[in-house]
């Protein structure tokens, strides 16, 4: 059961989340836990990697109040991921029972999947910022390549 109004992190990913954050003198690429979490969720959703949490981190990072996501505008990401997963707009309902918990569950599982991917990609890295930049660049290159593969304009007569 989800702790209402909080986004949880799997215990086995807690150290990674802390290492990716520029808090308490650390030099991670993200200013807050919420920023790391949303990046991981987007990565997990892009690659359709949804992983149940298992044991939840109770210390750093403790479950993060949902308000931290709201003030940064990240509630839109949580909602988009939930709608994309369920293919139902009623998941956004404010009056239906448990829709907030369901959205959070889906979001947390994509966060966990994205963090699992990052654990593999960042293994052995000294500078997480540099490695993340390389990951992002490779995603852009891959996307451009996919777009080129589906470019039907090459079938049009040349003028």
From TrEMBL:
Q: Write the protein's name.
A: DNA phosphorothioation-associated protein 4
List the InterPro entries hit by this protein, alphabetically.
DNA_S_mod_dnd_assoc_4
Q: Which organism is it from?
A: Chroococcidiopsis cubana SAG 39.79
């Amino acid at each position: 059961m989800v702790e209402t109004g909080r986004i949880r992190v799997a215990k086995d990913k807690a150290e990674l989340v802390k290492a990716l954050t520029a808090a308490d003198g650390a030099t991670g690429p993200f200013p807050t836990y919420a920023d790391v979490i949303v990046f991981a969720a987007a990565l997990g959703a892009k690659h359709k990697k949804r992983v149940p949490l298992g044991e939840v981190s109770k210390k750093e990072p403790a479950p993060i109040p949902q308000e931290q996501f709201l003030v940064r505008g990240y509630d839109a990401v949580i909602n988009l991921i939930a709608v994309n997963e369920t293919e139902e707009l009623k998941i956004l309902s404010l009056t239906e029972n448990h829709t907030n918990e369901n959205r959070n569950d889906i979001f947390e599982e994509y966060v966990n999947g994205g963090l699992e991917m990052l654990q593999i990609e960042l293994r052995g890295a000294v500078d997480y910022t540099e490695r993340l930049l390389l990951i992002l660049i490779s995603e852009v290159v891959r996307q451009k390549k996919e777009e080129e593969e589906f470019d039907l304009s090459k079938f049009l007569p040349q003028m």
